[in-house]
Structure formats: C-alpha cells, structure tokens
Amino acid sequence: MTRKIQTTMDVKRMLMKAFGVTERMINRALSFDSDSELSRKIRHTTKMKGGWIEASVPEEEIFYDVTENGMRLMRQYFSNGAVLEANMTTGTGIILFKGSKRKDYSKVYLSEIPSMQEFAKAL
Fold this sequence. Notes:
By secondary structure, the protein is an alpha+beta fold. 33% of the residues lie in helices and 33% in strands. The protein is built from 4 helices and 7 strands, in the order βαααββββββα. The strands form 2 sheets. A 5-stranded antiparallel β-sheet has the order 3-4-5-6-7, covered by helices on one side. A two-stranded antiparallel ribbon has the order 1-2. The longest helix has 12 residues, at 37-48. The radius of gyration is 22 Å and the shape is elongated.
C-alpha cells in the first residue's frame, strides 16, 4: 500500500515559501519518501491546510450480494481474473478462474479465507 498526501498547488506554493524548500522536497515529504523532521512538519502543515491522505491498495474488490431467492453471497474479484465466491447462507464456496471452476469448498470457515484468497491470486 502506498500513501500520499494530496493538496492544491496553492498550498504547495505556500509550503515552499514557508519552509524555504523546493517543490521536489514538498513532493518527497507528501509522498512519504522522506521521513526527516522537516518532512513531518511539512506533512503536518499540509493536513492543517486541508490536505488529505490517499492510499492505493491492490485492486481486489469484495461485493456482498443477495440473490433473488435470498442467498447471501460474498464475491471477491482479483486482478488476474479469479473470483472467490462464498455463499454465506449455505457456507459453501468456489474459486473461479476466467469462468471455469478451479476449486470447490463444501464448508468455508473464516480461518480458511486467507488461504482461499492466496490460491485465487496465484492462478
């Protein structure tokens, strides 16, 4: 996961003037590439001036659906095309890869979900 503090160019100009640094230093501080005392002060000031933290995470979305017949499903989509589907009504689960079933689970326990996710990612 990468983090970055976002702000306007006006705030960046104000930071450059207030701290007597270049835009490059501001960008290094806001992207957490530098962790010096000066960088921490820049980040703190930016947040006080309305800056916000954005985080980017691996693209893996989870959707919770209820089908027409009342089945509650959890579906997790992976960037490689795999789908982990757990039926929260029956407790069963499957892993699909590009439309074909790769693994079937008759009973899904919470403790098994991380290994199911790793299996799906590795396809």
